Amino acid sequence: MPRSIEPVRAALNAGEDGYTLSAEFTVDLGPRLEEAVARGVPLFFNFEFTLERNRWYWLNDQVTSITINYRLAYNALTRQYRLSVGGLHQSFATLAEALRVIARVSALPVADKGVLKPGENYTAALRLSLDRSQLPKPLQVDAIANSDWQVSTRALRWQFSPPPESPAK
């Protein structure tokens, strides 16, 4: 039974202040991981985004890099799933609701307006993954040997070229 986190779509959008990222993933943890989080084992997810300016004469120039760390845990007293991002916390009645929030990035600011130059080519890449190194130590050993703890992830890469700026009216 495949357990995976797959990117469905991603787009960079130009706005008045700069560029924003919207992305969506499908998240299938499988029954073993869903049971583990329901029993109180916190799961950690990493969202990574990079934007590089393509150069033919040298290595690509990294324009921006963003990492967001999620912590998902179940609280048996409140019977709610708690999703934490930095100092922000949000509670959900079901695991599916919490995973839906992790799986969707909407209007995330990634670059200011003057950073990307129209006519130049950029490579954007993003990935959402389960961070097994953050599991409790006894489970890390089990996660290495047991395929039930393995979640395959795939990075999505695409070429992006900013649109030419429209003349001021």
Task: Provide structural commentary.
The chain is α+β, with helices and mostly antiparallel strands and 169 residues long. It is 15% helix and 50% strand. It has helices at 30-38, 95-102, 137-145, and strands spanning 4-14, 18-28, 43-53, 61-75, 80-85, 88-92, 104-112, 122-130, 152-153, 156-160. The strands form two sheets. Strands 6-5-4-3-8-10 form a six-stranded antiparallel sheet, covered by helices on one side. Strands 7-2-1-9 form a four-stranded mixed sheet. It is elongated and about 55 Å long.
How would you concisely characterize the structure shown here?
Helices cover 15% and strands 50% of the residues.
Assign the structural class, choosing from mainly alpha, mainly beta, alpha/beta, alpha+beta, or little secondary structure: alpha+beta
Beginning-to-end CA distance, first to last residue: 57 Å
The poorly predicted ranges are none
Biggest sheet overview: 6 strands, antiparallel
Helix content bin: 10-25%
Q: Based on DSSP secondary structure assignment, what is the total number of beta strands?
A: 10
User: Whole-number average pLDDT?
Assistant: 86
Q: Note the beta-strand portion.
A: over 45%
The tally of helices reads: 3
- What value does the Rg take, in angstroms? 19 Å
